[in-house]
Fold:
Amino acid sequence: MSARSRTHAPVPADVPADDPADALAADHPPAPSAPAASAPQTPHTARHAHPTSPTRHLGPVKIPHLGDFHVPPRVVVISLLAIPIGAVAAVVAAGLLKLIALITNLSFQGRFGFGSSAPADTAHRWLLLMMPVVGGLVIGLMARYGSEKIRGHGMPEAIESILVGGSRVQPRVAALKPASAAISIGTGGPFGAEGPIIMTGGAVGSLIAQFLRVTTDERKALLVAGSAAGMAATFNAPLASILLAVELLLFEWRPRSYLPVAVAAVTATLVRGPLLGTDPLFGGAHVPAHIAFSAYGLCIVAGAAAGLLALGATALVYFSEDLFSRLRIHWMWWPAIGGAIIGVGGLVEPRTLGVGYDVIDALLTGHATVGLIVGVLVVKTLIWGLSLGSGTSGGVLAPMFMVGGALGAAEALVFPHVSPGFWALVSLAGVLGGVMRSPLTGIVFCLELTHEINAMIPMVITASAAYLLSVILLKRSVLTEKLARRGLHLTREYSVDPLEVHLVRQLETPVAVTFRADQPAGEITALLRAAHDGGDADRLLAQRLYPVLDADGGLAGVVTRGALVHADPADATPLGELACAPVVAHPDETLRALANRMAHREVTRLLVVTRGERPEVEGIISLRDLLTARRIDHHEEHHAERILTLRPRGTIRVPSTTIAKGKKISA
Structure:
């Protein structure tokens, strides 16, 4: 998650000041000879004409109530709830892997057992064609009569439930999703278990949260905690699971969400140990500590190839989905058609069916034959992409492990030798970075899967190159394109909210006019109308919120300009009786806190008062001031300038012009 480092700073010089139209009426310009207001008012202080003008109280004043993070006490409770969620998710993940093994044994070996088995080990080749079709039929029936949400690879569904579903997952999805995935993979589907277990783990977290009185954000944290726990238990990769949650599922980087996710992932990994072991899932690449510099250069080439493969795989999935959507038969039958595609691919290269952890291990240890490399690279990519578009159930990570490893193994045939499986390993990281567009997750994932720390720098280069190519050439990833097709927009660019880094005292407008509580309302109405007719030379009407002071000068309330202008000039009601309690801000609050307060109280202006038992009126801040902070952010992103230049004799000078939007502007 990226965020530009910011400090509380004044507005840049060329950011425009507030629009004068914020005054009374833009179509009634002030006349030069308006009478001065006769109402008691504070000494007139004009609205700051330019955002870079000195603002009040900008000295080095400590603000004790603000910190780097906002940590509500309930984060401890939510983090404790993540412990049982992580444990349950780990058990479910282990159970799913055992269920996949059981169905694989039943489908292709005809035996009841939980031992490791692969579809390619069958003695009856006709099963390679038939069983994927049978599995597709069962999944279609489960989706139609159980829940349609089991279709797909799981991650888009988890993201959608977070974005628009209030992080609520139906209980039947928690049961049907892993079952459908086990049937799909166990009958030969070329998918992984991680997508379904992410959805299932998330469902566990969501279901537990739905029995408790928690906020939507807290429920989201528990849902993602379950997802990360399921992934950590499946791959023995807790750190990569946490990063995936941050880069793809949480949409924020805050203690309230990170801590439950970290607790759940660690718990799941600890529980996984007695169930599935603690060894790395894949090992044996044996990357040396010293690598030739030429290999680092070729890592860029490998990254570009991985990025192109990611583009092709993503396009293939949604090309297939478009083709299936044109069929004139019910979508319930589509997974069976996808199963037929899988079966044909299985006849060509049987080892492309199933999860294929043994094939991935062969690729990463340099033991794969050329025939297997080509078969995986071509057949696996085709049957995975075409069948996933049919709406069957299965994940994307394990297939990408295999395809990425095959790409690297193919490159190893022409690239200089570094170690057995080196190019397969770095290309695997590159494909993950390109397909998921989560390069940090891809890099750490490969490190945790193999424990090959010496490959870290090559993997960073390869994954970053693939990521760069992917984000430039492709708007959406395979994980988010489905959301866009459902009319949802997901941005994965995370940055610091500009409203969070500006304080009220930097952009507030000093109060120019106040009224006494004992003044008749009609008198003020007549005063405002006269100011309007005379052009408001004193800018009496530029202020839209007026503080009302009692006899001691204390704040009695506020009245709006609109309420006074439209009142009866003959109304003798004291202004203090018409004043309402103000919604206030304090000079040392952030604009983000004010934006939330404005939204909650449904107001667009706040009165700025000092803290203390007897607060003093200091200024007014409006929605327009909040937009000024946004303009500052826009300026920093789009305004290009040269700060230093060199004269011919080598002396440094500050230039007299800056560059903005391709034009020279006087400094």
The mean pLDDT is 81.
